[in-house]
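hi! just following up on the protien thing from before. the input was this:
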Amino acid sequence: MDVGVEFSNYRVIEHIGRGGMADVWSARDQRLNRVVAIKTMARGLTLDIDPVQMFEQEAQTIAAL
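and the predicted 3d structure came back as:
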């Protein structure tokens, strides 16, 4: 992902950080006019099913908060 990229209702503002499994970006939700965080899987992990399942489980846990 690159700064300035637009997809759906979001425009990527900046790269916030990187962990073992993912990158975190700030983006503007252009429909609701607010800044959000977007987490994307690190490249190279998407072909391995275990990291994909871990990433999805983490996303579900965060969404429940």
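Strands lie at 6-7, 10-18, 22-29, 34-41.
The chain has a mean pLDDT of 87.
cheers
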